[in-house]
Amino acid sequence: KKIAIDGATTDQTIKLKRQFYEPNEFYINFNGRIKGYSGIEFGLGGYIKNFNLEVLYQLSFDKSSDVKMLADYSYLYDYDKYVDCRYKYQGLGLRVGYGIIMGTRVRLTPQIGTNFVLLRENDADYEYYFTEGVITTGVVSAKLSVALGKYFALEASPEYGFILGGSQKY
Questions:
Q1: Sign (positive/negative) of CA torsion 33, 35, 119, 166?
Q2: Are 31 and 56 a contacting pair, CB within 8 Å?
Q3: Which of 114, 118, 158, 170 qualifies as a FRET site for 134, CA 20 to 30 Å off?
Q4: Model-wide pTM > 0.85
Q5: Residues 12, 149, 42, 168: is their CA dihedral positive or negative?
């Protein structure tokens, strides 16, 4: 707000509020994943006039529960066979969104994006590794950020993922 101060001006009170989020920012984040498969996620991103772009790297620590996968036994038999497999994942993700600054400490960023996920299969019965495969997933999320200080915030980012395509095995 612009004000003019001259000799006729008497006492003037101005209240200021610190704004923790700006329309143009760069950030680095490190996340732990607790729902689904535990793991870590490292991201780089930024806002330009509140438009958001984010790149992520994801890595799981534990294996999935048993999943029926098509295994290539053509080197032994004349057919393929479904086997119980467990897998770990590594992934690269890309998200775009728009940040809505709400007050001085809160920003909500609806996002859409994609993940390219590398799965390493493991036969549950024989501990035999099959070939790796890639799945492409779509993601819809809403990142809620609450600033605790100028350079530190807590985030919750619930997301929904769905398969867009992948290797023939999946």
A1: negative
A2: no
A3: 158
A4: no
A5: negative
